[in-house]
């Protein structure tokens, strides 16, 4: 990953704790005994690296993000070095940050970001669809830890897919309730997508579906072409008739 694509990493002033022989990494929030830092989306993680090198010539520190070098200011390399990840984003999940001495890369400490997040369900959504059209209701269910269940309801009752003539699919990112032919009597209703997460509990997204009458759709371009042909034919017929009238009058 290019350094320019890591805008969330910058000098920071906070710290807390995990260590090895010559290099120590402290963090806020603190790391677990196995080196994992538990955090959430949009939070801030602060890392501070220190060392016990014997001489100033050996005290320059290096940070890596998944083995890619992190750009540091010169004053943030000597003796103690700090970086911040703010805000934490989805791509930071399972990211490894490593600090070591430039003069001795074997003296290093690594920590891993364990980023948790709920499904990103949106505000209630109103949908208008014509009769006999297709309809797709999509609910974002991606989360970490993964959701344990997804339930769709129609007017407060779990959807009977056969009776409602609907199909339900789930690809791990979205749960989609759909029908290829909307009928007002079956599908005009309030739908709820309800997810359950071991960490974030139950969350709901609401869809209110309004079914309108089917409108007759005319093929616009063929119609225009037909009108043009008729007009040209009429003009040519009138012109031909006019020539005959002129000849008769001479």
From TrEMBL:
Pfam families referenced in this protein's UniProt entry, alphabetically: Ig_3
One of the record's GO cellular component terms: plasma membrane
UniProt GO MF annotations: cell adhesion molecule binding
Cellular compartments annotated: Membrane
Top-rank taxon: Eukaryota
Chain segments annotated as transmembrane: 220-240
Keyword Transmembrane: yes
Lipid bilayer topology: Single-pass type I membrane protein
Signal peptide extent: 1-22
Start and end residues of each Ig-like domain: 29-110, 118-212
Keywords: Disulfide bond, Glycoprotein, Immunoglobulin domain, Membrane, Signal, Transmembrane, Transmembrane helix
Identification of the protein by name: Ig-like domain-containing protein
KW Transmembrane helix (keyword) present: yes
InterPro entries in alphabetical order: Cell_adhesion_signaling (IPR051275), Ig-like_dom (IPR007110), Ig-like_dom_sf (IPR036179), Ig-like_fold (IPR013783)
Protein's GO biological process: cell-cell adhesion
